[in-house]
Amino acid sequence: MTAVPAATPSSSTHPTTPRAIADRYVDAVCDLDPIVATSLGTRPGDDRLPDPGPAGLEAEAELARATLAELDRALAADPTLDDDPVERRCARLLRERLGAQLAGHEAGEGFRSLNNLFSPLHTIRQVFLLMPSATEADWSVLARRLARVPEAYRGYRQTLADGARRGLLVAPRQVHTVVAQLDEWLAGPFFGRFVAAGPEVLRAELDAAARAADGAVAEIRDFLRDEYGPRTEGTPDAVGRERYALAARRWTGSDLGAGPASGGGGLEEAYAWGWAEHQRILAEQRTEAEKVRPGATPLEAMRWLSLKGPAVEGVEAVRARLQAMMDEAIAELDGTHFDLAEPVTRVEAMIAPPGSAAAPYYTRPAQDFSRPGRTWLPALGRTRFPLWDLVSMWYHEGVPGHHLQLAQWAYVSADLSTYQTSLGSVGADVEGWALYAERLMDELGYFADPGERLGFLDAQQLRAVRVVIDIGMHLELPVPDDAEGILAAHRGRPWTPELARAFLGENSGADVAFLDSELVRYLGMPGQAISYKLGERAWREGRDAARRARGAAFDLKAWHMAALSQGSLGLDDLAAELARL
Description:
By secondary structure, the chain is mainly alpha-helical. It contains 23 helices and 5 strands. The strands form 2 sheets. It has a 3-stranded mixed beta sheet. A two-stranded antiparallel ribbon has the order 1-5.
């Protein structure tokens, strides 16, 4: 697949503000990666797929270099641009994000981009679930894009093969997990089932394209299993400090390996703070577990809730329940703690396709709201869904979590830039808000039921444990000296994946499949897991500082809307910018 050359507009013929530069960058990215355009809801007739091959990676890097050079020229020519808070935030975001991207490219990270959630394998499949499918014309575009899947997967295969020759490999655990996912895709097969809903007039074209796409899935599955996988033997799960710091910067917008961020002191400080959070939350869990089952430990109470507590029977029934939960939250929060525009009030609950990772997720709306925001629940073959741990999860994924932030970003994108409200998203900002949203609902009294509040605390505990084991495993830090339970015999010894998995099981009410998937996720996406709690800390610090500054005049609803309307920020800037609101 040949990459489309990225245009580098001349500053002499185009506006040179950071926002204008950022939006030209988004347009150029959409040329290189049409999946981005589909996510944004632009270019609906575009039937192309990105080039995930080596040439495509270099084209993306060259575009980033050219954009940073243009930004440098613009700021040097007009230093007053930094006086405009929107331009200042956009410039800092663009510089940090593209800098992080280039650092990863120069380290060769794109040549070992294989994990169970965000690899090119997954994004290429996911795009078909985001595309319009209401008309024959829509399906014609789908058919043409589907026919391009084999070429895209061949390009991705070439990238992994080149990475293997350069010694840039993932650990075997990632390969085995992805191969199992592809087996599940093929059991459908996914693309064959997907096109079954298409119009009969296009049946031959759709079926042929689906067979070729499913065949391409089988080919890359065989490549991973038989050729690539054996070459990864001996590659450690832990990535080490240098690669971890690089990855953590991608997810947090802060160079945690080099110094402080949001009141912290780098990776060791984050590790120690995560451990303190784990212990704080555990004390609360013990209190709440006593209310659920007198004399029970938190884990015993959560297991009882899973088996005996309120539950929804049936996949469609749980989807409807989650939809009602989000609709009710919007109705109750709008006008009291938020001031929502009509497009933002629309969100859809969906069931994730087979072969997804175990964690629920959210997909943002199109920038023009032609496609709504959607939450996705992986059913994982289940037909019974306990409610105790779903309530807080859907406050996180839906309302007031991801949906209110990302839909509001779409709503205000014309006032900021498309980049600040989409492509420039920073995990610590987005996941930090969603975790803040869970805690907000607790502050507002939405967890009056002890079981549901234990579910909220379980979700908080999982995010604290993530900080500890993600940093601990990849940096091979020692287990804390005051560790109890399964860790007591390992105090002072380095973390291992096996120990981390046992600790997860001791401190989470989630089922085995979910926890197994989570461990693979942390090992395959280093630094992503810490973005939740570190981001939440910045959100809470920013709110507390704004409240102290405003005193009795502080208006939480106004602060929420201002905070949700400033676009993406990295961890280095988030708390300070929130404090100014």
